[in-house]
Amino acid sequence: MEESGELAKAILKQDQDELVDAIGDCVVVLTNLAHLAGTNIEHCIQSAYNEIKDRKGSMVNGTYVKTV
After folding, report:
1. How far is the C-alpha of 40 from the C-alpha of 17, rounded, in Å?
2. Under 8 Å CB-to-CB from 65, ≥6 apart: which residues?
3. How far from 28 is each of 13, 24, 61, CA to CA, in Å?
């Protein structure tokens, strides 16, 4: 949660260097969590992508809106 808080802060401040660092920190934490759960980050990403890859829609004001 600490890392996601840092990410939110960087976004609000529009601090690109901090944003890059916070995203990297989140990826490292998630990679470690995946390992502890007996899987790997690549598998988690592929699984999530497979769920959304065929969705249709567009970004509206920073939010993805699905086409029905």
Report:
1. 27
2. 57, 58, 59
3. 22, 6, 29
Which distant-in-sequence residues (6+ apart) come within 8 Å of 27 by Cβ?
41
Four-point Cα dihedral 46, 4, 30, 55, nearest 10: -10
Indicate the SS3 state at residue 64: strand
Q: 63: which strand partners?
A: 60
Q: What is the pTM of this model?
A: 0.77
Instruction: Tell me if residue 63 falls in helix, strand or coil.
Output: strand
The token pair that represents 68 in the structure block: 């029905």
Q: What is the pLDDT of residues 49-66, one digit of tens each?
A: 999 899 899 999 989 898
In Å, how far are 3, 10, 12, 34 from 19, measured between CA atoms? 11, 5, 10, 22
